[in-house]
Fold each of these.
Amino acid sequence: KAGVTQTPRYLIKTRGQQVTLSCSPISGHRSVSWYQQTPGQGLQFLFEYFSETQRNKGNFPGRFSGRQFSNSRSEMNVSTLELGDSALYLCASSTKLGLADYNEQFFGPGTRLTVL
Amino acid sequence: KQEVTQIPAALSVPEGENLVLNCSFTDSAIYNLQWFRQDPGKGLTSLLLIQSSQREQTSGRLNASLDKSSGRSTLYIAASQPGDSATYLCAVGDMRFGAGTRLTVKP
């Protein structure tokens, strides 16, 4: 069974640009969550999508957005990039069904975003 | 707001030692707790998932326990090996993560 895949693996952008990251979950997983990992803040939850709907959201500015397609693939977008957005962006998928039903999460390898 | 703390932040042990990593959380109303390992620059690998109704889970040399009443979980690694060197993270409920414990196992 293929794992969670993320593309691209590495990305370099300049301040003010926007970026779109992609995540393909494990087949059959309908829940996709996104996380930002930095040395200073650690792993922080961005948002979660389930059946094309955002069900949960972390404490990030509106520049961070996402969407999920009917095949459960998800994208996240960051507009007007800032230097502080440099991070490893991870997505995870699970068979989670209900809002409070957190099944085991499986993570992708991440996208390393560098903002210059 | 759930706060997750992992102690120690870093640990270095000689190969073969048994060791315990700690995870504490402030809100005991959690649904489950999951332990992960992360190798440098890589994604997270799930190690063990403990549902709120369970007390412990075992996989090979790993054993994780959960005590909701005291807000604590431990990850026990038996007979450590250099390949166990990684950062270990715990995540509770709505995927709030601790800062992790960086483990180094010296040959």
Amino acid sequence: DAKTTQPNSMESNEEEPVHLPCNHSTISGTDYIHWYRQLPSQGPEYVIHGLTSNVNNRMASLAIAEDRKSSTLILHRATLRDAAVYYCILRDVRGTDKLIFGTGTRLQVFP
Amino acid sequence: DGGITQSPKYLFRKEGQNVTLSCEQNLNHDAMYWYRQDPGQGLRLIYYSQIVNDFQKGDIAEGYSVSREKKESFPLTVTSAQKNPTAFYLCASSIGRLNQPQHFGDGTRLSIL
């Protein structure tokens, strides 16, 4: 399974945009990029996923580099409730349905 | 509301004891999963089931057992063979087609007495 690399932690102020990076230099053509987040003492929550094109939903935007070796999760206006650990995960459509979690990025949001 | 219910929220196990963690979903999802999370770590897959009466081992299945007799239920038993069971256990479900999101419960925290 292809691996991802994320910074251990990031900080933001409330109502500012946040760009969470993810490197996946060994990504294959059949890997989708998924993002989940986990609030303290809760289960992970799906955020967004994409293959090649940028994606938007009510929670966030996903910007995917043209060579697909990196991606960025964008929170347009951070709130205190966005403080969580964010996981970038690759899922191969040819493989099993399991999610392989790394250690993620811990986002702190300050008022 | 549809969702995944895990119970209990906290569980204590004595040495040599088997304990069973409950996971129920009313999302009509075919696939269900059990993950384990240790402090400061990501999740690791224990077992998964893509259909009733069928399940497969994940990456860390030793010391655990599961059953899938009903679509909505996927209980996990932590046996006495699991020597380091203290962890946060998370259950998830999905439609079962790849690239569909997995929906997680709020977890069970298991500790050793």
Amino acid sequence: NAGVTQTPKFQVLKTGQSMTLQCAQDMNHNSMYWYRQDPGMGLRLIYYSASEGTTDKGEVPNGYNVSRLNKREFSLRLESAAPSQTSVYFCASSVQARGTDTQYFGPGTRLTVL
Amino acid sequence: QQQVKQSPQSLIVQKGGISIINCAYENTAFDYFPWYQQFPGKGPALLIAIRPDVSEKKEGRFTISFNKSAKQFSLHIMDSQPGDSATYFCAAAKHGGSEKLVFGKGTKLTVNP
């Protein structure tokens, strides 16, 4: 039981390049989330998926797209990376998309955009 | 609008001391208040949570104190240990709602040996 896994762990991009961050969970959770963490800014929600087949914008969705590939997998895509997207990205999952449901986080992807 | 305000941003405590982190919220509809703990290089993990029907919840050395009238809650770490060095996030949510969990900006705790 691996919980929430994320790939890659580290990535360096040049401005304008694209990439996809992968996330998978093996807890049979319905809901999945993507956050970014920046110093002094805490955790900010980018997108979430309440259930398979649905996605919704969070607090900071601009510059990102997501795909809920199936119940296990939720990917985050940067179409044209910008230095402002340098951050640590966390994927999380929960049983349901209720605020009171415990969220289980992956280990993160550290992204640097030059 | 920052819905959950957390302070201090950083905290240094000596081993054996008490660490106190405070949070304040505006939305009176919030009725679930968890704390997440994040070690360096790891993702956050739920540490302890409280609902407003009680004023205090204790789990080992970790205690949440809740003041509904002041719309404030705090995390107390008794007998702080170097292994407690981490970033702590408070959060708030509305029970039964689909609104997402709202996080504070985090407090970096360093416990010196």
